[in-house]
Amino acid sequence: MLRFHKMHGLGNDFVVIDAREAPVAIDGPRARAIADRRRGIGCDQIVVIEPSDSADAKVRFFNADGSEAESCGNASRCVATLIGGEARVETLGGLLHMSAEGANPSVDMGSPRFDWNQIPIAYPADTAAMPVAWEELEAPMAVNVGNTHAVFFVSDTDAVELDRLGPIIEHDPIFPNRTNVNVATIENPDRIRLRVWERGTGLTEACGTGACATAVAAIKQGKAHSPVTVALPGGELVIEWAPGGPIRMTGPATYVYSGEADL
Ligand SMILES: N[C@@H](CCC[C@H](N)C(=O)O)C(=O)O
């Protein structure tokens, strides 16, 4: 029997499995079965909290298609509230520092990476304005914030057919590990509107790492300043970043219910 917590961050919803006391084996096929909204529990990502030798916990993230992701911002805030207080958490994308003090948890997501082979992309190219276009979506900035993101600045994020273009960009061979796809509109230097096509999951209500990558891209290009509010369909996050330093993300994390399933 699988015991789980159902949680969400701005509508980006998770099945969280606390495997710190007893191991729980999750692989791609089992993750897909859990995420299935008709036959399983249903969620955007599965989050597994495990013991760690070097930190307070280790966390693994699986997308709805069963692929394992290096990082997940919204799930990290949910993990922060479950662990409580201050915690250092190991992930495939790096060490995260979490704080569940105050109304909204904060997570220090580590420093962004910009080199072509750190994104990664298939060949050396300018990652600040990649020399590529998919119809009206052109010259994205590529940023790795633990996981891979392509950020497109557009005049109206709602006008982009992200459900059609997102999967084409996600699977383009220029991104050997696929990519998350962000379309952002700068409302003013304090506020960005964002929609995200998530690698391995599709359109979601919100993406925490997408908000981090987009804020970093906007600040680096002089379009926004820190702290900046990123408004997603599911709600708002505040992102702080200064060049050379780590990214700090603050926003809500919501507990929905706990349950058991035969999956
Ligand atoms: N929902 C997430 C990101 C989840 C992982 C992503 N789809 C990937 O494959 O990198 C977030 O809140 O950051």
Automatic annotation (TrEMBL):
Give a GO molecular function annotation for the protein. Answer: diaminopimelate epimerase activity
Q: Which InterPro entries match?
A: DAP_epimerase_AS, DAP_epimerase_DapF
Q: Name one Pfam family in it.
A: DAP_epimerase
Which pathway features in its UniProt record? Amino-acid biosynthesis; L-lysine biosynthesis via DAP pathway; DL-2,6-diaminopimelate from LL-2,6-diaminopimelate: step 1/1
Q: Which transformation does this protein catalyse, written as a reaction?
A: (2S,6S)-2,6-diaminopimelate = meso-2,6-diaminopimelate
Q: Where is the active site?
A: C72, C207
Keywords, alphabetical:
Amino-acid biosynthesis, Cytoplasm, Isomerase, Lysine biosynthesis
> Where found, per UniProt?
Cytoplasm
Give the binding site residues for substrate.
Answer: N12, Q45, N63, G73, N74, N147, N180, E198, R199, G208, T209
EC numbers: 5.1.1.7
Q: Where is this site: Could be important to modulate the pK values of the two catalytic cysteine residues?
A: H149, E198
Source domain of life is Bacteria
PROSITE patterns xref list: DAP_EPIMERASE
Similarity comment text for this entry? Belongs to the diaminopimelate epimerase family.
User: Oligomeric state and partners?
Assistant: Homodimer.
**What is known about what this protein does?**
Catalyzes the stereoinversion of LL-2,6-diaminopimelate (L,L-DAP) to meso-diaminopimelate (meso-DAP), a precursor of L-lysine and an essential component of the bacterial peptidoglycan.
Q: Which PANTHER family match?
A: DIAMINOPIMELATE EPIMERASE, DIAMINOPIMELATE EPIMERASE, CHLOROPLASTIC
NCBIfam families for this protein: DapF
Protein name per the record: Diaminopimelate epimerase
Provide the species name: Sphingomonas vulcanisoli
Q: Coding gene?
A: dapF
